[in-house]
């Protein structure tokens, strides 16, 4: 039959599997699945209670990371993870599991808002259009989602519960003694009774309402504070650290980002730092992701030390308290709140010119340097640059171990986001401090004995000496000496001395900072917070949720000159005065009162912090989730002590953002008794990326990949030679391939097979449209093994397969089962292909048991053609819930294996023996072999070494 003449082939084989046949089959079965509710996952209440068989099934909860519905739609790289989880979910159904697999949409986001700013079109309109387009694209792939459970974060009935969770967090505090979150009302009760002392020493009754609110704000897990933030005037909004590039610009729009102080909502995720670290040990996650979270949390043990300054103190956190005698100056972050307080009106007598930066007064020097530092990102500030910058504040601090007066500088290499925003500088034993000290002509004192021959006169060194395994020297005072001690012992001694003196204590510090939770945007969840006449924040009662977004005339936050750091946000919501200023009865016994609404919105991370819970019980209007349903799908069980989703698939780029935030919310909800699972995701799997070739012209601009001509290994666009490189796939790179294009040419099952066959799921791989045809031909051969292309009749025969075919079948069953369970879809496809090729080469009609098993094997991977062939084989029920084949162990092992027989270490015979042969039997067979007898030539035997079934070694006497 001609492969090169499609028209002739269609006439000769009118029932051939073609793209048109695939399209018809796929559309028909997708309609059937929707109408039949094939993928509806029953919940324990009602569904399981009335069906003992269903109740006995083990459950499996499988999830993809929330997709954002882009207006550009999907390219073939996007569905990789969705197809993989679909294959795994289908396999789990066929192995007897009650499977929950669905997909929603993380739909708040800056792209839709930017479109609204540019066009005036409501972001909901464009977002819902993008969702509908994405649903259509995903449906065409045949994904087996329980569509009853789908939702978008922009649905008010969804974000009602996002707001409700915020209220729970706002009304909670972290009890360090109980090591869990507790209702804030319990803390108030302790203050009222005197069980817990009120900070500042006054009684609770003596505090005004505003003072009480300030006290509670220091404990609440959600709190507002004046904090250093990343202010982006060009976007008119504050950004999280993760939304700022390494060169200090916004990810969106590439605008400059500055450090500023603004009143913002924060989440006290730092209270959970230890638990977030410890519980990683029980999660089945890639070690690389665990390491990223551990590094991001950044736990370090050390000491807090107070350095007196003018009757007050600068507190530092250090992990090298053993080097205190070597501290010769201090450095504050430019944003440190004490900088202005300690800055005198004039330079102290004897101030060196190199310390002043050329400024007439300390205030002038500090202001200029702060402006300079505000234009740099944290990454830039911590870069190991040769030139260290800074300026003297005009203040001196007292080193508490020796009474020495040491100058206090500000420098951009110290950040407010780590420790206390202040360091004691020990230049002899820290590379950055050493460079700074050299630049500013500061003393460098050795207090850790070098292991090389440089000696202890640090003024002669070329660089710092850093060691954690050396003796302490030059470290003694009136009542404490560390000389001669090792680092560990010196740390213990000085820490005890600091605590005894009341000027420090041993402590643990974390790199993790509290989560900045405010955005100056329109398109986000409104905060369920109102402020009374005294500026006190109150949470809305549940009866007032959801608080929906109001209509506004202008969706954009007020933007400014991108380079003007001296500006502050004006949010879109603040312009709707009728919505902002309201009279409410909050049910607190005070009656109706005037309030002002919070006009910031939540960040786009909020909705994805808990969506795994909403999938469980998506239409519950009374509770976040029914406890029995949550316990069934996510509760702790054997092997999963913290509960969570059984398999969560998504990109590694979310390691320290979404994954950390979701873990924090789960722990708070768990502590407050709302859920039984303190961890959201038990098993995490990071899929790789589908890459594509990018073609660039002489200017470096991408040109359409579809228009490239290849000649003699070179690439041309409109006659001009272009360069080819491997990169991401995307619209901007002009190399995107849509799923629709592949489906139209080959069918969705072919696309599914190709994406799964490209390589291991967790490895990135290049897309090659020309290679897709290989999987298309596999499906055509499968079709021909069941259906006559000329007549459309089923050709299978009701006979038993021969032993060779049985062995091929059961080896395939055994291998595919193991591969699908291990997410090794590429090798599973290879085994299905091998079996299919065996049947094709046999040239005879395929026995029915083999054909049915083959269809079941491929069903998770190519569900449409499997449904069609299953129906053609005479079955009236869906293939989706059929039992996956089980291998007969008799046919899985090889019929024979080759045993090598050596005499004097040389191979003399090769025997075909049973894999189950015993050592004694194998020895007898080997000694009886005529080639072995000839090799021995009558010699006696000193020793026979047998390693059944593959080796016999004979040592003659």
Automatic annotation (TrEMBL):
Known EC number: 6.1.1.4
Positions of ATP binding: 731
Protein name (record): Leucine--tRNA ligase
PANTHER family: LEUCINE--TRNA LIGASE, MITOCHONDRIAL, LEUCYL-TRNA SYNTHETASE
Composition skew (Polar residues), residue ranges: 568-577
UniProt domain Leucyl-tRNA synthetase editing: residue ranges: 294-498
Ranges spanned by the short sequence motif 'KMSKS' region, renumbered to the chain: 728-732
Cellular component, GO annotation: cytosol
HAMAP family: Leu_tRNA_synth_B
Chain ranges of the Methionyl/Valyl/Leucyl/Isoleucyl-tRNA synthetase anticodon-binding domain: 803-918
UniProt key word Protein transport: no
Location(s), subcellular: Cytoplasm
Region (Disordered): 554-578
One Pfam family recorded for the sequence: tRNA-synt_1_2
Catalytic activity entry: tRNA(Leu) + L-leucine + ATP = L-leucyl-tRNA(Leu) + AMP + diphosphate
Family affiliation: Belongs to the class-I aminoacyl-tRNA synthetase family.
InterPro entries per UniProt: aa-tRNA-synth_I_CS, Leu-tRNA-ligase, Leu_tRNA-synth_edit, M/V/L/I-tRNA-synth_anticd-bd, Methionyl/Leucyl_tRNA_Synth, Rossmann-like_a/b/a_fold, tRNAsynth_Ia_anticodon-bd, Val/Leu/Ile-tRNA-synth_edit
Keywords associated with the record: Aminoacyl-tRNA synthetase, ATP-binding, Cytoplasm, Ligase, Nucleotide-binding, Protein biosynthesis
GO biological process annotation, one example: leucyl-tRNA aminoacylation
Highest taxon, organism lineage: Bacteria
Domain Methionyl/Leucyl tRNA synthetase, chain residue ranges per copy: 65-168
Top-level EC class: ligase
GO molecular function: aminoacyl-tRNA deacylase activity; ATP binding; leucine-tRNA ligase activity
